[in-house]
Write a structure and sequence with these properties.
Length: 472
């Protein structure tokens, strides 16, 4: 590597709390990535160890994968290039091979972005509190001194394909061979699900399942020519919703760019909320754990998930544990509690059998199994798990976020409510009829509102009252 003379590198713009993300050619370049690869090996003491490196379909990913591998090998790690992978494939590889790894992806961000998600051996997450800051500091040091010191023995670089092993592993966890025939529309959004769906659910690598898969945008294309690969935005689901109705399909699945999140559409073209999916999968995982002799299986849910989830978990003999929003919190609590499953309102789903990591594909397989083992449509099945009405997340651009929250608190003070501050401020009616949470964004001037109530009228009333105060 060669550093520009007198240029000081500061990577704080691209190093986030849980990963690295930036604009290609500006805050993330091959030179920076090479230094990060070397720093990753040094910060985690991986000299002489195996390091797994892959990437998504973004145009810059192959160059960055090679640069990271070069930096890691220079510091003595033996690199296995996994080539094109989804993020949950990386977690599988880090877990199954008990090796640290990195994948190049910017998930649902626009085409001009790329980034790095890193993991310790066993798919343990890395955050700013568990090694990412050390990686950043060492990378900056190498960049500013203009060279990466050579290890005594340079590591070897080889190639390894994990797609078939990953697919076989998932099929062992959820047996779909006995399902009734299902017609499934899958919107890969030109992202990595275009590679993993035919491998896991189709007959590309493994025996065929009783599914007819109708593909939408399976061509891997990091310029996202059809729509952004972010199914959290309702407009990005419209093509899938129309296709499900047009083809008379039983279910629609939408994945984000790196395929670690999955969203579900019923046969009428209506979204099934991530909270309902959490409840559906939780029920299956509780039953499976109990059948294996576990007395009270633990399910994790973040505080924005519907209260239907902890109610269902308790009814089924499990124990629900509420956490803050964010995968590092969920994964930490999953490990502490020995939880069998965890779900978030943002459609991240975590599994003990998947090294506590999140995988959209495994969640999708559980939903297909639940649908395929009974005769009713998904709209009826989903309704069992959505007894309440939710507002979804509503953002308000507010500079004085603390002042806005204080106005809400003062206005609701006389009501019969409880307030907790686990993550933002959650206001709950003591009679159980509604709750809402206000969370300030750490990175943007947004205050995020999530509200839920027993019926539409109550939810709308609470939502509009809060928004009136926040936006006053």
């Amino acid at each position: 590597m060669t550093s520009e003379q007198n240029k000081t590198f500061d990577l704080s713009a691209s190093f986030k709390a849980y990963d690295v993300r930036g604009i290609v050619g500006e805050s993330i370049t091959a030179e920076i990535v090479e230094a990060v690869g070397a720093a990753f090996v040094d910060a985690l003491g991986l000299g002489g160890e195996t390091v797994l490196v892959g990437g998504d379909m973004r145009p810059s990913s192959p160059e960055f994968t090679q640069a990271f591998a070069s930096g890691a090998a220079q510091r003595g790690a033996n690199v296995q290039l996994l080539d094109l992978i989804s993020t949950d494939e990386l977690y599988y590889a880090c877990g199954a091979l008990n090796a640290a790894g990195a994948t190049f992806t910017a998930s649902h961000n626009p085409a001009e972005y790329n980034g790095i998600k890193m993991s310790k051996a066993g798919a343990q997450p890395i955050s700013s509190e568990t090694g990412l800051k050390e990686v950043q500091a060492l990378a900056e040091q190498y960049l500013n001194q203009g060279s990466i010191p050579a290890a005594e023995t340079r590591g070897q670089i080889s190639v390894r394909d994990v797609l078939k092993d990953y697919s076989e592993y998932l099929r062992k966890l959820v047996d779909l061979s006995g399902s009734r025939p299902l017609k499934i529309v899958v919107d890969a959004g030109n992202g990595m699900a275009g590679l993993t769906t035919p491998a896991v659910l189709g007959d590309k690598l493994l025996p065929a399942l009783p599914f007819e898969i109708i593909p939408l945008y399976f061509e891997l294309d990091g310029s996202f020519p059809n729509h952004p690969a972010n199914p959290l935005e309702p407009e990005n689901l419209r093509d899938l919703q129309a296709a499900v109705v047009k083809h008379g399909a039983d279910i629609g699945l939408a994945f984000d760019g790196d395929a670690d999140r999955c969203f579900v559409i019923d046969e009428k073209g209506e979204p099934v909320s991530p909270s309902a999916i959490t409840g559906m999968v939780a029920r299956r995982e509780i039953a499976r754990a109990q059948a294996a002799g576990e007395a009270t299986p633990v399910i994790i849910h973040n505080l924005l998930t519907s209260k239907a989830v902890p109610e269902l978990v308790a009814k089924d003999g499990g124990r629900a544990v509420r956490t803050r929003v964010g995968h590092s919190f969920i994964k930490a609590v999953m490990a502490e509690e020995g939880a069998v499953f965890g779900g978030e309102h943002s459609a991240h789903f975590y599994f003990r059998d998947f090294w506590n990591a999140d995988t959209g594909m495994l969640a999708a397989m559980h939903v297909l199994a639940a649908l395929g083992e009974q005769d009713g449509p998904l709209s009826e099945l989903g309704r069992q798990y959505e007894p309440y009405v939710s507002s979804g997340e509503i953002n308000s651009e507010i500079e004085d976020k603390a002042g806005a929250i204080e106005r809400v608190r003062a206005d609701f003070e006389g009501d019969d409510i409880e307030i907790d501050h686990m993550d933002g401020s959650t206001f709950s009616a003591k009679d159980g009829s509604w709750w809402f949470n206000l969370r300030p964004s750490n990175t943007e001037p947004f205050l995020r509102l999530n509200a839920e109530a027993k019926d539409q009228a109550t939810m709308a009333s609470v939502r509009d009252r809060v928004l009136g105060l926040v936006r006053a």
